[in-house]
Amino acid sequence: MPRVSISMPAYNAGRFISEAIESCLSQSLTDFELLIHDDGSTDNTLEIARSYEAKDPRIRVTTSTNCGAAVTRNKLIDASQGEYVAVQDADDVSLPARLELQVQFLDAHPDHVLVGGQIEWMEEDGLVIGPVHTVLNHEDIEARHLQLDCRMAHTTVMMRRNALQKVGGYDHDFAYAEDFDLWLRLGEVGKLANLPQAVARYRLVGSSLSSLYHPLQVRDAWRALNAAKTRRGLEIDPHESAPAPNGEPLQRASWRRTIQFGWIAWGAGRRQSWRHFALRALREAPNQPASWRLLVVGAFKRPPGGAQNTAPD
Fold it and tell me: What phi and psi values does residue 180 have, to the nearest 5 degrees?
């Protein structure tokens, strides 16, 4: 039996799935199975996945008509044989030591049911932006989750399969926040943690950039949080409800994200990426002082010490 089952749901991921699969095959830990389920793609996703299956016996590919993310992820859990289940989204990249580091952690911490790690953001075309850091220990993660602040990056997590089965896997009733709901339920049967190392690169594509589904994500996350508070016997404010979208124009939201990415790249010492976002910010908002500050400060100042993910003082 493999130590790890890598779960890769795929839908119209033909542009990126080869890179995602290659990142799994390049892992320092080789005792795994890679389960890929094509959720009714209309592009060449299935064809690419099948080509890898034909070359490596660790890969198993299944397909069905489109049934949605939560159902697809549960199908992959049901098919898993490993002690641990690692999530690998079909448009993201796992760094080479990811599986080894996470197996070592779970082996050494039997009271933990889930471990994630730090992520690096990258552009749709693969341009690496830089790291985004998050909290490490269970107490801090749970405190943030109870404030509706998700601290587990889905594409980084490795979970104990028996814990997944105990809580019932993903709940499709929380379609836009099924991962956050799962973290809350797993946190009730064991501990959660994040490794201090970066273990994956998260690709910002399509809806990630436009925040098209953000209001629905917020709605379902609030519902999941209220359900968790009910299970845990915590008080729910009767007036508590999902906050309304801030109504910020998409053009300005895009520019603000560009500025954020530019400072992350600057803090990580990625000069090519910093320059890319500094010039984009000027094109998007040439009259905004923040656009010029990113370019000028970034050109003449170096980040103090290690990587950071905010603008300098």
Answer: -60, -40
Can you tell me which residue has the tokens 């500094």?
278
What is d(CA 263, CA 254) in angstroms, rounded to the nearest whole number? 15
pLDDT of residue 242: 54
Retrieve residue 103's tokens.
């197996």
> Of the candidates 16, 58, 18, 67, which has an alpha carbon nearest to the alpha carbon of residue 38?
67
Q: Is 68 left (phi over 0), alpha (psi -120 to 50) or beta?
A: left
In DSSP terms, 10 is beta-bridged to: 38
Q: How would you classify residue 269: left for phi > 0, otherwise alpha for psi between -120 and 50, otherwise beta?
A: left
Radius of gyration of the chain (CA): 20
| pLDDT recorded at residue 143 | 95
Query: What would the two tokens of residue 127 be?
Result: 């341009």
Place of tokens 């996945």: 49
pLDDT tens digit sequence for 167-203: 999 998 998 899 999 999 999 999 999 999 999 999 9
Percent of the chain with pLDDT over 90: 61
When pLDDT is cut at 50, 70 and 90, the band that residue 268 belongs to is confident
**Residue 313 class from Cβ within 10 Å (0-12 exposed, 13-18 middle, 19+ buried)?**
exposed
Higher pLDDT, 227 or 284: 227
CB atoms < 10 A from the CB of 124, how many? 14
The answer to whether 217 and 211 have CB atoms below 8 angstroms apart is: no
d(CA 143, CA 135) in angstroms, rounded, equals 10
Residues 6+ apart with CB under 8 A from 104: none
Confidence tier at 271 by pLDDT (50, 70, 90): confident
Q: How far is Cα 116 from Cα 85, in angstroms, rounded to an integer?
A: 12
